[in-house]
Amino acid sequence: MLKQRVITGLLMAGSFLAAVFLLPPPVLALVFAAILALGAWEWARLSGWMSAAARVLYALVVLAGMAGLYWYVDYGGTPRLEVEDVQPFLGLACLWWSFAILWIRGYPGSAVLWRTRFMRSLMGLLILVLGWFAAIYLLSLPQGPLMLVSMVLIVAVADIGAYFAGTNFGRHKLAPAVSPGKTWEGFLGGLAACVLLGLAYWQLLPRDAAHIGLASVLAVTVATALVSVVGDLTVSMVKRESGMKDSGSMLPGHGGLLDRLDSLCSAAPVFALGLILAGW
Q: What rounded mean pLDDT belongs to the chain?
């Protein structure tokens, strides 16, 4: 299982890097939309839509949401998205993840607020569409591909740091009702690893970003790492409420596609909004 997991992970990483640096942004936006449509297929099942027709319809609704935002910001014709166009949507995403933190904290009691099929469907729409939107905004920035890779690296480092810290020092459960395997020690280990990554980012800032201070770099890095954990826990919470262990089986050794997208979809809007507030 570990060998299969590593091979799948390396293939995903290589494909992602090749796509980000070789494909033009509009094409890459469509590729990301197709991947998230597959994630929507899995989320539809978690929402309670079991028939193939209903799950396809839900994926089409998610794609329609992406297409609406693509048209609204004129992404295909605008080399750089304007802050005033994107900030309300990034703010909405961050507000949604603030609610998610409260629901995770209050689970299982909080499920009374969101366990209906409609609410779970709405949750998936917010997670997938706004996560995609944040990613294409990052691509529109100067050095956009590098910004997107930087965000993904924060999520990966947080996950790796949490794994090793949790494995060696984990004693106190982070959210036992949602994900019994996660510990506070692992969570703090992941954040500590991201602080080191933030220090490295600050050292590597280009000259035209010299106005961004160390405190801003660390704040964006740590906030992105923190919310990546929230994304992971949110999907775990919905899976637990739905009585399912994995969101699917598309990725050998990793479970479903959502099990890899959850942290990225939560991290992207926070990272993007953080860059705006930092003055990137």
A: 90
